[in-house]
Structures are given as C-alpha cells and as structure tokens.
Design brief:
Layout: E1 3-7, E2 10-13, E3 18-25, E4 34-39, E5 46-51, E6 57-59, E7 67-72, E8 77-82, E9 91-97, E10 113-114, E11 118-123
Parallel strand pairs: 2-11
Antiparallel strand pairs: 1-3, 3-8, 4-5, 4-9, 5-6, 7-8, 9-10, 9-11
C-alpha cells in the first residue's frame, strides 16, 4: 500500500525558512515523478514544483529562487526547502506521486498518490 507522509510544517515569520519532508513507502520511490502542491483556503490546489526520476526539477514562478525541491531515493524521502517565506505562502502543503518516471506537468490530475498534508503558516 502506497503511503506518503508529510512533516515539517509549522508557523514562521515572514522571511523565515521551513523544510518539509515527505516519507514514501509501498512503492519504488526512485522510479517515479514526485511533486509538492499547496492549497490555501478558498483557492485551487497549486503545483509548487516537481522532480522526476532523473532529478530534473520544475518550479512554479511564484516560488522559483526561494524554494528548493530535492529527493533522497535511498531514504524514499522528498524534501521542500522553503526560504524567504511570504504571507502568500500560507497553505496546506501536500506531496504527491505520479505513476510515471517523467513529470508531465504540475497539474494535480497528473498525480495519483497523495499525502495528508502539512500546514505552513507565515505571519508578519
């Protein structure tokens, strides 16, 4: 059974940093595209960034230069390092796994497995 478990969320002041983790189990983690999404109240789920099985990364414009995605295939863990956090980064953050090695897009419909989410709250 595939499981994705996020951790590392919390409250931070604007300009601060957080590192999210997503522990995967139940499948061959290193083989598949992984992504981070976020959803703020009243808004659609937004793809933050993705990383394919070869390590190629794509970011949303809104986070490029501030967020860094990485993966440790030996630990079956996906990471999201978030720096220079802004108020508008406040959201529930989810990790997701596709069933392809390549990442076709950052659309939620392309991802098959989802974690339960971890809350990130940025305050002024």
């Amino acid at each position: 059974q595939v499981q994705l478990v996020e951790s590392g969320g919390g409250s931070v002041q604007s300009g601060g940093s957080l590192r999210l983790s997503c522990a995967a189990s139940g499948y061959t983690f290193g083989t598949y595209c992984m992504a981070w999404f976020r959803q703020a109240p009243g808004k659609e789920r937004e793809g933050v960034g993705s990383i394919n099985s070869m390590g190629t990364i794509s970011y949303a414009v809104s986070v490029e230069g501030r967020f860094t995605i990485s993966r440790d295939n030996a630990k079956s863990t996906l990471y999201l390092q978030m720096n220079s956090l802004k108020l508008e980064d406040t959201a529930m953050y989810y990790c997701a796994a596709a069933r392809t090695s390549g990442c076709r897009s950052r659309l939620a419909s392309e991802y098959y497995y989802w974690g339960q989410g971890t809350q990130v709250t940025v305050s002024s």
